Automatic annotation (TrEMBL):
It comes from the Archaea. CDD domains: Radical_SAM. Its cofactor is pyridoxal 5'-phosphate. This is Lysine 2,3-aminomutase YodO family protein. Coiled coil: none annotated. The lineage of its organism: Archaea, Methanobacteriati, Methanobacteriota, Archaeoglobi, Archaeoglobales. PROSITE patterns: RADICAL_SAM. It is an enzyme of class 5 (isomerase). Keywords: 4Fe-4S, Iron, Iron-sulfur, Isomerase, Metal-binding, Pyridoxal phosphate, S-adenosyl-L-methionine. [4Fe-4S] cluster binds at residues 107, 111, 114. One of its GO terms (molecular function) is L-lysine 2,3-aminomutase activity. It comes from Archaeoglobus profundus (strain DSM 5631 / JCM 9629 / NBRC 100127 / Av18). Its EC number is 5.4.3.2. Residues 93-319 form the Radical SAM core domain.
Length: 368
C-alpha cells in the first residue's frame, strides 16, 4: 500500500477509535465535543505503539484526545507571537537569520500538545499560497541565512511540491542551509521507508545543506521502522537533529529524558532543544511542567548523560525570543536569551523570582 493510501486510513473519529479501545458513554460524549474543536488524526502505525492496558501510556497521552481538553481553557493560541511576525501569508520572520515557511496545515498525527492548535487541521489561513512571493522576500533579505519549512508537517506533501520548494530555495546564494521540521520519522516512518523522498533530499543536499529537525519525545517512539527512516535520511547526507518537548505524564522524569537522549545519539540524531511546553489553550493544564520542577528533571537527566547526549538546551520559545533556562537557585531562576526578536537582547542573562507553579516567563515575578 502506498504511503498516501495508508495516510487515508488514519483514525479520525471517535467511532474509529472505538475499534481499538472501549470508551465509556460519558467519556465518548466528551471526546466527540473535543474532536469538533480540535480534530483527531492518528496513523495506524502510531496507534500500534500504544499499550491500551496502560492507563499512563505516553503515546496514547500524546495522540489521543482527552476530555480534559474541554476544561483546560487557560492560555493562548499564539504563545510565541507568530501573528505579529507574519510578513505575508505562510511566511514568518522573527529572527533575522531565519525565515519560517508554513507549507501546510496538515500532519500525519495531530499531537494533543501542539502549539499550533489554532491552525493544524482546521484552517489554511496561515499556510503559504504563493511560493514566488516568499522566495522574493527571502532574496531581498540577505540577512536570512536559513529557511525552516514547517507547518503542519511538510513531509505529508507530495514529492513534487517539496521539490518545488527546494528548486526555488537552493538558488538563493545567501542561504547556508534549509531545514524541514517534521515528526513523520516518528509517527509515520513508511513515508520515508517506502518512497524516494530521502533520495530526493539527498540530491538537493549536494547543492545546499539540508537538515531535518524531527521530534522524538519518548523512548517508545524508537522502533525498527522509525530508526530505519532516520538511517535513510543519514545515508543520503541529511543532518538530523531533534527537538523534544518536556511533557507532563510523558517524559517528565530524568530517567526517561536521559534514555531518550541516549537513543537519539545512538541512532545518529543530534540533540537540539528540550522545549518547555507552551501555555497553549487546551494544552497548558494537561501537559505543562512547572519550571522549577522542569529544571530539576533536565539537570538530573544531564547528570546521567555523556557530552554528546546532553548538548541540548532547555528552552522557552517566548514571543520575545528563545530563552534558555540556565539555573535555579533558591527562589530565583536564571535565564538567558539564546535567540531574540530584538537583537540587543541576545545573550542577556537575567533572573526572575520563581514561584512554585510558574510555567512560563509571564508567570514569573520581577526579582528585587
Amino acid at each position: 500500500m502506498s504511503w498516501k493510501k495508508e495516510l487515508k486510513r488514519n483514525v479520525r473519529t471517535v467511532d474509529e477509535l472505538k475499534e481499538y479501545v472501549n470508551i465509556p458513554q460519558d467519556v465518548e460524549e466528551k471526546l466527540r465535543k473535543v474532536v469538533e474543536i480540535h480534530p483527531m488524526n492518528v496513523t495506524r502505525y502510531y496507534l500500534s505503539l500504544i499499550d491500551w492496558n496502560d492507563s499512563n501510556d505516553p503515546i496514547k497521552r500524546m495522540a489521543i484526545p482527552s476530555p480534559d481538553e474541554l476544561s483546560c481553557l487557560e492560555g493562548d493560541y499564539d504563545t510565541s507571537g507568530e501573528h505579529e511576525n507574519t510578513k505575508m501569508r505562510g511566511l514568518q520572520h522573527k529572527y533575522s537569520e531565519t525565515a519560517l515557511v508554513l507549507a501546510t496545515n496538515r500532519c500525519a498525527v495531530y499531537c494533543r500538545y501542539c502549539f499550533r492548535k489554532r491552525m493544524v487541521g482546521l484552517t489554511r489561513d496561515e499556510v503559504i499560497r504563493r511560493l514566488d512571493r516568499a522566495v522574493k522576500y527571502i532574496e531581498e533579505h540577505e540577512e536570512v541565512t536559513n529557511v525552516l519549512i514547517s507547518g503542519g508537517d511538510p513531509f505529508v506533501l507530495d514529492n513534487k511540491i517539496i521539490k518545488r520548494f527546494l528548486n526555488k530555495l537552493v538558488e538563493i546564494p545567501h542561504l547556508d542551509f534549509i531545514r524541514f521540521g517534521s515528526r513523520v520519522p516518528v509517527t509515520f516512518p513508511m513515508r520515508l521507508n517506502d518512497d524516494d523522498l530521502p533520495e530526493i533530499l539527498g540530491e538537493f543536499a549536494e547543492l545546499k545543506r539540508i537538515y531535518v529537525v524531527t521530534h522524538y519525545n519518548h523512548p517508545k517512539e524508537f522502533t525498527e521502522e522509525s530508526t530505519g527512516a532516520i538511517k535513510r535520511l543519514l545515508d543520503n547526507g541529511i543532518v538530523v537533529s531533534n527537538q523534544a518537548v518536556l511533557l507532563k505524564g510523558v517524559n517528565d522524569d530524568p530517567y526517561t529524558l536521559a534514555e531518550l537522549h541516549r537513543l537519539l545519539v545512538r541512532y545518529g540524531i543530534v540533540p537540539y532543544y528540550v522545549f518547555q511546553c507552551r501555555p497553549v489553550k487546551r494544552v497548558k493544564g494537561i501537559f505543562q511542567v512547572p519550571l522549577k520542577e522542569g529544571y530539576k528533571i533536565v539537570e538530573r537527566a544531564k547528570a546521567m548523560l555523556d557530552g554528546h547526549s546532553k548538548r541540548f538546551r532547555y528552552i522557552m520559545s517566548h514571543r520575545t525570543g528563545k530563552i534558555e533556562i540556565v539555573g535555579v537557585d533558591g527562589d530565583y531562576i536564571y535565564l538567558k536569551y539564546h535567540q531574540a526578536k530584538d537583537k540587543s537582547m541576545l545573550g542577556k542573562l537575567f533572573r526572575m523570582k520563581l514561584t512554585e507553579n510558574a510555567g512560563w516567563l509571564d508567570d514569573l515575578e520581577v526579582a528585587e
